[in-house]
Amino acid sequence: MLTGGIIVVASFAYVGLLFAIAAYGDKRADAGKSLIANPYIYALSLAVYCTSWTFYGSVGRAATSGIGFLPIYLGPTLMAALWWFLLLKMIRISKANRITSIADFVASRYGKSQLLGGLVAIIAVVGIIPYIALQLKAISTSFSIILHYPGVAMPEKLDAPLFLGDNTFYIAMLLAAFTILFGTRHLDTTERHEGLVAAIAFESLVKLIAFIAVGVFVTYGMYNGFADIFRRAAEYPHLHALMQLGSQFGGYTTWASLTLVSMLAILLLPRQFQVAVVENVDERHLNKAIWLFPLYLFAINIFVLPIALGGLLRFPAGGVDADTFVLTLPIAENQLWLALLAFIGGLSAATGMVIVETIALSTMVCNSLVMPLLLRWQRLRLRLAERADLSRWLLRIRRGAIVGILFLGYLYFILPAKPMRWCRSA
Amino acid sequence: MSEPPANSDSSGLTGQRLTALLLLGVLLFNYPLLQLFARDGSVLGVPLIYCYVFCAWAALIGLMVLVVERRD
């Protein structure tokens, strides 16, 4: 198929572009002319908060719960108001104490407890592997959907090849290579990675542009603006219910608790701690980020409801998962390039999350889990390490952790769907 | 980096204003204010509740811009 080639080339070219941007960012940093030393790049890098769950999942949630998807973005908006002193304090404490991960941070608040640090690291890894798997799943699903262009088909979970025959596997390994190359280039006490941040900021821009492009196309290309979509949808009782806070909305308690959880998430998720605290170049960048980041969240959410309702109207028979509307609507309307842009947007949302989360987790695994154990267990090993230069050891552990985390994420992604096939192929 | 951090001078007041905005946001995005708009009706064709939440959100961000960018 002609489109199959285009899609594979486009997605690998996109990841290649990320490598180029990160390499350029590192080069500029080495030359002392930082690419990322401004509040706009800082705010864009914070938008790594928006994963493929935002890019595809918001529309899916909106299609079943109306505005029920919004607390995930209202919470961080509210929390941003507290960044003025809360995040500022976290940045100052971390810089003063050379704290490089959330596990470190929590441990240092309780007298540098290694046990606590290790515990936080374990919880983070266990909790986030499924989240990484979800991003890989989104890549894989969107890949098989767009491969069927110009047909609209839901992916068959069972007949996809695994490992070496699976494009997602290659994407995962490419991401591991990217993270190792730009995340563990050298051992730096501040753990800052300028090239990586530049690439992440670029990804945030791509996913925003892609989502808004699809939103504008659905709202003004397929329909005659917001009012038209809402008017047509209101003619169906089940869609009309989405426009009020009916039973599908989930109630105020769910709403308030989701808001609270996302307020904490924006502060404590390992990847948010990485970009907001560890990668912070200058604490003055915080000032503009306080309103730029909420503005980003606002912008990426404007078209969620029109796309959701537009999709429900376009595919009245069901059978098309609302989680895929961002991609399936352009496909159904024969817009190859827009579909490709949507696919790349989803890819950028997923890869950004995977890259930053992996680097944050690998720092944690290395500093809070492996090193304390190595230093504690065997004096012999320590002496060995001293001789062979400790920093090389640290880098090796970290690289191993990156590959390990991504591989676990891939396993978690393929195991539940196809345990039998996996056992056979293993 | 020789100049002092931008928010060391008027941090007290700006911090208080931002905290007030947080409280305003909590009020705007919760019961019972939401319930007021959870009914039929539309503004320029946009359902009332959508219009309310997005307008309140935009207003909140606008106020944050005013508070943060204000240079006394």
Short summary of the structure?
With 426 residues, chain A is mostly helical. Chain A contains 20 helices and no strands.
Radius of gyration of chain B over all CA atoms, rounded: 17 Å
Q: Helical residue percent of chain A?
A: over 70%
Question: Which overall shape of chain B is indicated by the principal axes computed on the Cα atoms?
Answer: elongated
What's the rounded overall pLDDT mean of chain A?
Answer: 88
First-to-last CA distance of chain A: 30 Å
CATH architecture of chain A: Up-down Bundle
The overall number of domains of chain A is 1
* Average pLDDT score of chain B: 84
Number of helices of chain A: 20
Shape designation of chain A:
globular
Q: Major sheet of chain B: order of its strands?
A: 1-2
Overall radius of gyration of chain A:
22 Å
CATH third-tier fold name of chain A: Sodium/glucose cotransporter
Supply database-style keywords:
heterodimer; A: 426 residues; 20 helices; 0% strand; globular; disordered C terminus; B: mainly alpha; two-stranded antiparallel sheet; 3 helices; 62% helix; elongated
Describe this protein's structure:
The complex is a heterodimer of chains A (426) and B (72). Chain A is an all-alpha fold and 426 residues long. Chain A has a single domain, classed as Sodium/glucose cotransporter (Up-down Bundle). Chain A has 20 helices and no strands. In chain A, α2 crosses α9, α6 runs antiparallel to α7 and α9 (194-222) packs across α16 (325-332). The two termini of chain A are 30 Å apart. In chain A, 52% of the residues are buried. In chain B, α1 (11-28) runs antiparallel to α3. The radius of gyration of chain B is 17 Å and the shape is elongated. Chain B is mainly alpha-helical. Chain B has a domain at 31-72. Chain B has helices spanning 11-28, 33-37, 48-69; strands at residues 42-43, 46-47. At the A-B interface, α4, α10, α12 and α14 of A face α1, β2 and α3 of B.
